[in-house]
Amino acid sequence: MLRLKKMSQRQSIYGWLLLSPAMILLTTFAFYPSMATFWSSLFSRGTRRKPSKFIGTDNYTDLFADPTFWKVLTNNLIYAGATIPISIVIALSMALWANSKIPARSFIRTAYFTPTVLPMIAAANLWLFFYTPGFGVLDQIGSLFGLPSVNWLGQPETALFSIIVVTIWKEAGFFMIFYLAALQTIPEDLKEAADIEGTSRWYYTRRIVLPLLMPTTLFILVNALINSVKLIDHLFILTKGGPNDASKLLLYYIWEMAFAFFDAPHAAATTILVLAALGIIAGIKFTILDKRTHYQ
User: Fold this and answer.
1) Which CATH superfamily is domain 55-292 in?
2) Other CB atoms within 10 A of residue 176 CB
3) Are 61 and 273 in contact (CB under 8 A)?
4) Rounded mean pLDDT, 199-225
């Protein structure tokens, strides 16, 4: 009995030793900063003459009463609702084509993946050249057909749409790599059996390929969702959230409050709301989506 107890204690210590590196990293870079941010969101903004004081949930109440916050939230929902599904569909289409037996397949894969390796700032400057009114590539092409010059980044109607296009162009090639790797794990026997049965390519893709790609799709969906709330690089170069907050997204809004307006408590409150929303989505993923996904 004593021997079994000692073995159990050794296994327990061994397990905690295995978990300790991850626990230390998560505590240092995730749990503690989150708790510190939440605690900061409960205090007022302090100055030298007027120190901060505990105000409870007043910062959250101010956010909900701020029309700019709802404008930014709406922008981010539109941005996520456009970039996530379009990027996934384009990435899947590119992967299916790049995985097929076509000439210059390696060149096509490289061409699709090239935007991904560009730094975010470099990609934004490249598209700034495309969007420049009068001199940009888009206006130059439009002038060939007699179209007027368009200030793509300078008017509220097109600013957010222009940011969405840049994001899709940047992320689709990155997501394609995951789909391409997943397609290459599907056994050739399934395709041969489908050909023997006389099934069409669309039926084979819909009934065999897409279900087998569901774990990859879920992984890409989570990454695309995270990316949709952390975009800030492109906004610095292209629009800085303008005009009139038309292209301002949540992370840029948080940065602006914290480092431009020096309003750290309201920035902390916004951060906590974003973390809470992501936590709810993560809970849905683990409790509902994972149960409907078949992992090999």
Assistant:
1) MetI-like (1.10.3720.10)
2) 26
3) no
4) 86
